[in-house]
Specification:
By secondary structure, this protein is of the alpha/beta class. The protein is built from nine helices and six strands. Helices cover 37% and strands 17% of the residues. Helix 6 runs parallel beside helix 7 (157-175). The longest helix has 19 residues, at 157-175.
Amino acid sequence: MGFGFVIPLLLLAHEANSLNVLAVGATGAVGRSFVRAASQEGNVLVLARNGYLATAKERVSGDFGYLGPKIHKLKGVLVRDWDGGDLLDITGDTWLGWQGDVAAFQADAAVMLTGCLTDARLKGVERIADAFTGMAPADVPKRLLFVCPADEVLKNPTARENVAAAERRALALGESGVCDVASVRVGRVLALEADEIESKTYNLQYRPPVTL
């Protein structure tokens, strides 16, 4: 699966030869491909609800995303635990202080691939928005790319409402001058084609691909 539509947008974020990219929701089927592609352009900080499981030798849980050791070991790829907006999924305290590490990373661009179908994912967007708002301006990513499904591929009205609410929250960062924000609505849910576990989880939520 290609990410030709994403990398050029990232390159608009900064004129440097190497980018620092913050990837949120990047442990799904789409995120794995994105991290692999973005690592060729610079450094990638991946926020994961459980970095240990995300980088394990084999995927052991369908409840958490998965990068795998090969992607984790790519040059410039860092994985950092965060709460993702849902503390019920969290064990231990390794997620504490993620906001400070994101600020220290000084990302040129951030990409959100969380999907935002559930209340927990919506809260994750709010957590990112709150973190960016609380950072010193120099530490905030210069561009935020919010990627989410188009309404036409969402079956569930609640999911459509959650996606719309998450999109509004992300766009509000641009309206308030925190960072530049672009929203990309996609009519093809690649996770259904690329990841068996995610397909079983989300096939009740998504419709077949549409042409936008």
